[in-house]
Structures are given as structure tokens and as C-alpha cells.
Amino acid sequence: MHVGLEHYLVVSALLFSLGLLGVLARRNVLVMYMSLELMLNAANLALVAFSRFNNNLNGQVMVFFIITVAAAEVSVGLALIVALYRKRQTAHVEDLTAMKL
Q: Which CATH architecture describes the domain 5-96?
């Protein structure tokens, strides 16, 4: 069986849809953040697949830089979530709507 570009794009679309569902359906900030990361990784998978099947390394180089920036973003985002949790003792979006500290 030959795994083609369509297979990678279907998996990428499913991962992106699952992440979007997690962002829209959940009210926990940490779960929403993880769902956003899942969406980012789905886009990375599509970029790598296109790059591989077009025999061009530009997409893979771009994914390398995206992952590097995402690592810094994760550390800052988790630090903000931890700070909000320590201040408010909750991780639900409804409780964090008033951002006055």
C-alpha cells in the first residue's frame, strides 16, 4: 500500500479539527492551550507532507523554525496559565473573564 499526500492531509485535517473542537468545546484554559498546540502541529504535518511530496526542503525548514518559536511560546504560555491559576485558584475561562488582578 502506498501512502500518498492525501493520507497525510487527511490526518492533518483530523488533528486540526480535533484541536478546533477542543478549543470551542472546553472551558479549561490548559485544555484549550493544548488544543491550540495540536492545531499548530497539524499545520506542521501538512507543511512537511507538502514539502516531502514536492521534493522541496523549504517547508521542512519552515517547520523547524515554527517548532523553535512554539517551544518559546509554550514556556511563556504555561507561565501565564500558572500565574493566573495561582492568583485566581481556577483554570476555567468563565472565571477568568474579568482580567483585573
A: Orthogonal Bundle (1.10)
